[in-house]
């Protein structure tokens, strides 16, 4: 949500799984509200872990993850769902509910927030009109193409106006044209003031649409360009 | 959560694993029918027994050699017993007439038996809740001219022992079946959760509260409980009517019709309410574990 000041801060984060090499070692990061940034790095470098740390699904071994000025690790169990509502997550495998229609899928975050049904319907219709996929709303997700499903997944991530959109390899399974369209939509969303963090391997995409890029290498978060 | 969304979720849950839900419902119904039949038989047995022992009946059999004076003495002694009612002096002639009247069909056979030596009998009853004390029973038994005092104490003791054993078995059976029902509903819900694991994961990531995820499953559990309660009551009622039809068909057991009864309305409502609570508990247990394991 543009009105919520998104501020992501990783301070001296150390994170490792069992006895393996640490994923992060003394890693730092700061993202201001309304930024668009790419997150890149080799497979298994820690892009998803970064998202999970931010969402509170993982706790760092040491250091502190702050979101909007609040230490994520200090959140109580009952506060966690509300913390998660500050994010819109776009998954590589979409994580849509195939037996439901596109509209039902997009409505979920609003229903979770407890918004009235008529408002939910109106908001989904408006968003579909803005992003140009009104014709898909009544289709079952299972019958849609990969690109269309990704569009629905982005709409679901954005419909409740989150402070940050975390997109985990959203273009990985898409052809070039669809990947460009997906990026356009995320850019459009960012122009509305929503912070977008896009994890990707697609360096061509980054070259064609340059923006602040972070590289995770050797357990550090490095600035590639700014 | 919006009510229509909640019921839509419940509908989706049931639709997603309809066969499992119906299987769970059927198994819970069977377990409940077993439990219900036991309770029904037990409650009716208690009622019939209480009815039977409502008034205590006693018979003093006099010796053939007894004299009128002995009879009068015994009669007077009986009158002194606390709570005594309906004292009846039955002569051998009266005894014979009663016997022939009771066994009308076998009158010809009885006529051939020597019924001349029937004894004098003094029958009496005590008010409800009053029992003949051991002292009075001994005193009556030892009186001149008294052959035997028959007061069915042994029968009553046997019945009481039977109920003590039945109580123990009943408690065990009730506990066993209650656990079975909880387990059946819990497993039904667990299967439902597994079939919707992906959806639960998505809801969790999107910021759904535990109650948002849990509530549809709780309602599903309560519904399984309610419907298995209702269907088991239906099955038991059919069984009851069927047995009653058999009982009324036989003249020997016709009298039982007045004594046996089905669960009354408050008991039926209580059964359904208890089943709803059991459904809630079972699904609460089933969903608790998955909610604890959830991470975004």
Please tell me about this protein's structure.
The complex is a heterodimer of chains A (226) and B (296). Chain A is 34% helix and 25% strand. Chain A has 226 residues and is of the alpha/beta class. In chain A, the strands form two sheets. A six-stranded mixed β-sheet of chain A has the order 6-7-8-3-9-10, with helices on both faces. Chain A has a four-stranded antiparallel β-sheet with strand order 2-1-4-5, with no helix packed on it. Chain A is globular and about 50 Å long. The radius of gyration of chain B is 31 Å and the shape is elongated. Chain B contains eleven helices and four strands; from the N terminus they run H-H-E-H-E-H-H-E-H-E-H-H-H-H-H. Chain B has 296 residues and is of the alpha+beta class. In chain B, helix 2 packs antiparallel against helix 7 and helix 7 packs antiparallel against helix 9. The chains are: A alpha/beta (226), B alpha+beta (296).
Helices and strands in order:
The complex is a heterodimer of chains A (226) and B (296).
Chain A: E1 8-15, E2 24-31, E3 36-41, H1 47-55, E4 62-67, E5 70-71, H2 80-84, E6 87-90, H3 102-113, H4 117-131, H5 146-158, E7 164-168, H6 176-191, E8 195-199, H7 203-208, E9 212-217, E10 220-225
Parallel strand pairs in A: 3-8, 3-9, 6-7, 7-8
Antiparallel strand pairs in A: 1-2, 1-4, 4-5, 9-10
Helix pairs in contact in A: 3-4, 3-5, 5-6
Chain B: H1 3-16, H2 18-52, E1 56-62, H3 68-80, E2 84-90, H4 92-102, H5 107-112, E3 121-126, H6 134-141, E4 146-150, H7 153-195, H8 197-205, H9 210-249, H10 256-259, H11 265-293
Antiparallel strand pairs in B: 1-3, 1-4, 2-3
Helix pairs in contact in B: 1-9, 2-7, 2-9, 7-9, 7-11, 9-11
How much helicity do the residues of chain A have? 25-40%
Q: Report the portion of residues of chain A in β strands.
A: 15-25%
Number of strands of chain B: 4
H-E order of chain B: HHEHEHHEHEHHHHH
Q: Indicate the mean pLDDT of chain B.
A: 83
Measured by DSSP, the beta-strand proportion of chain B falls in: 5-15%
Structural class of chain A: alpha/beta
Shape of chain A: globular
Give the low-pLDDT segments of chain B: none
Number of domains of chain A: 1
H-E string of chain A: EEEHEEHEHHHEHEHEE
Which chain pair shows the most residues in contact? Answer: A-B, 26 and 20 residues
What gap, in angstroms, lies between the N and C termini of chain B? Answer: 20 Å
Largest sheet of chain B: 4 strands, antiparallel
